[in-house]
Design brief:
6 helices, 167 residues, alpha+beta, 33% helix
C-alpha cells in the first residue's frame, strides 16, 4: 500500500487510542499503565520521565472534530500529542522535519500500524476515507509534485509560481 504519511497518520489517529497503543510499548516504558489512559482525565505524560505528577490531560474523541482522534495535552511542554506520536519514526522519510513527532515508545512505525488497520477495514470504510480526504488520498501524485513543495519550503519558489505551473 502506497499512502502518504499524512494519510497514514490520520487513519492511525482515527482508529487507535493512547490506551490501545500503549499495550504494545517497548520494555523501556513497561512502567506505563495503559489502563490509566482514560479519556477526559489527567494522566502521566508518556513522553517524560516524571512519574510523580500527572502532567497531561487526555482528551477523548470529539464528534465535532473532523479528525475524531484522541489528543494528549502535555502541560510541561505546552504541546498537543496524538496517538501516532507514540510510534517509532517511519523509515525512508524524505522530509526529516516530520521526525520530531515520533517518540519511539511503541516499537512499530506508522507504515506497519497503518497497514495492519487498513488491511482489516471493510471496502466501504476505505472508500469513505478516499472520498472524504481527497488531499490525503492513496495514489496521490507525490512524486510529480513533491519537488515543488520542497522548492517552496527551501525558498526557491513562491506560491504564485507554483500555482501558475499547476494551472
Amino acid at each position: 500500500m502506497n499512502a502518504s504519511l499524512s494519510f497514514q497518520l490520520s487513519v492511525i489517529d482515527f482508529y487507535t487510542t493512547f490506551q490501545y497503543l500503549l499495550q504494545y510499548r517497548s520494555s523501556d516504558y513497561i512502567e506505563l499503565n495503559p489502563d490509566s489512559y482514560i479519556p477526559d482525565t489527567t494522566v502521566f505524560c508518556p513522553f517524560h520521565e516524571n512519574k510523580e505528577t500527572k502532567a497531561a490531560k487526555l482528551y477523548g474523541k470529539n464528534k465535532e472534530d473532523q479528525n475524531q482522534s484522541e489528543k494528549l495535552y502535555c502541560f510541561a511542554e505546552n504541546r498537543l500529542y496524538f496517538p501516532h506520536s507514540l510510534l517509532s519514526p517511519p523509515k525512508n522519510v524524505v522530509d526529516k522535519s516530520v521526525l520530531f513527532q515520533f517518540k519511539s515508545i511503541i516499537p512499530y512505525d506508522p507504515n506497519w500500524v497503518f497497514s495492519a488497520i487498513w488491511n482489516h477495514l471493510p471496502d466501504t470504510e476505505k472508500d469513505y476515507w478516499k472520498q472524504t480526504n481527497p488531499s490525503l488520498s492513496i495514489g496521490e501524485p507525490v512524486k510529480k509534485y513533491g519537488g515543488l513543495y520542497r522548492e517552496y519550503k527551501e525558498g526557491k519558489r513562491d506560491l504564485f509560481s507554483i500555482l501558475k505551473e499547476l494551472s
